[in-house]
Amino acid sequence: MADVRVGIFMPLDPALVKMIEEVSPRIEIRELAPLVSEAATSDEAKAKLDEELRHIEVLYFGGIPEKLAARSPDLKWAQYVGTGVEGLFKAGLVDAHFAVTNASGTNAQPIAEHCFMFMMMFMKQMPQWAEEKANHAYRRGLSRSDFIEGKTVGILGLGGIGLEVARLGQAFRMRVLAVRRGGARQSGVGDVDEMYPPSGLQDMLRESDFVVVALPLTAETERIIGEAELRAMKPTAYIINIGRGKLIDEAAMVRALKDNVIAGAGLDVFEVEPLPKESGLWDMPNVLMTPHVSGGVVNYRERTTKLFCENLRHYLAGEPLENLLDSRRGY
User: Fold this and answer.
1) Residue 213's closest CA among 193, 184, 242, 246?
2) Contacts of 94 (CB under 8 A, 6+ apart)
3) Which of left, alpha, beta for 290 (phi over 0: left; psi -120 to 50: alpha)?
């Protein structure tokens, strides 16, 4: 007999709904997406949605439900489909009466690959060759590409993405450095050749040919890369940001790029999104940009649903949940 009511607060493929149903006969699935859509224009649908939310014990959600804590007194756990969680903190969900988990790690591989796409494009002179193609020019001998092998990659943040960047760095025979929260400097930690505490950030920056910013955005990490950090980098080094735009002082980065303080930047995230038309980043030849798409993969919802199912098994068994958010850490 079903005794755990699970609400799905977003459209989901029937095959994925079935995947959730098969976790246990103890659960009852409530697909709320139609009501969510209708509630925007119908008081009757909103009342029905409120009634559903009142009796939900577990919620699988994408868009953040308004006043979720007040509307869901029986809620024990909410699984977020995304990885960036600053919106959840702003909405007060993490300090509510229920546990909140995110989908961290489900898109680590594609995002890490995106970082290496930026690195390879810089090393193999792709911006120049793209311009040549646009001009219908076929000229050999204009430049010589460089090796990624032997270069040093420095990683800020060793969550799922950072760990995957480290693994790929070793596969490319790079030297891998990283900064992680707490602890002393160590050598040979997993795929990381040299691990630094936060106080060693500038030391790591000075040694890196590529700096990958893969931190969550918290009060502690906002603008962790500013003018001093950019000036600590090599003039031949590149910065890559796939975390959040506000991890870097964007104005300072623009100045550093204009003044050749650093060689270039590969950016998937920005302080303001969409990136304003007047941003100086648009026309910089030493900047590669994508519009916050590094984690978008064709089977992303399948990946997150598999994680949700695994967490649902943990929940039903009374075991600890994966990716539990912590208001003290900010992620």
Assistant:
1) 242
2) 85, 88, 100, 325, 326, 327
3) beta
Res 1 pLDDT > 60: no
Q: Give pTM, 2 decimals.
A: 0.91
Selected catalytic residue, list 114, 180, 244, 301: 244
| Annotated catalytic residue, options 114, 180, 292, 301 | 292
141 half-sphere exposure, CB direction, 13 A CA radius? 0
Mark whether 292 is an active-site residue.
yes
Q: What is the dihedral of CA 132, 133, 138, 142, to 10 degrees?
A: 30
> First CA to last CA across the chain, in angstroms?
36
Supply 77's token pair.
């756990």
- Do the beta carbons of residue 128 and residue 143 sit within 8 Å? yes
Instruction: For residues 43 and 55, give the distance between their C-alpha atoms in angstroms, rounded to a whole number.
Output: 19
Name the active-site residue from 273, 310, 319, 329. 273
244 is catalytic: yes
pLDDT tens track for 261-281? 999 999 999 999 999 999 999
- Whole-angstrom Cα distance, residue 324 to residue 331? 8
**H-helix or E-strand spanning residue 18:** helix 14-21
Catalytic residue status for 194: no
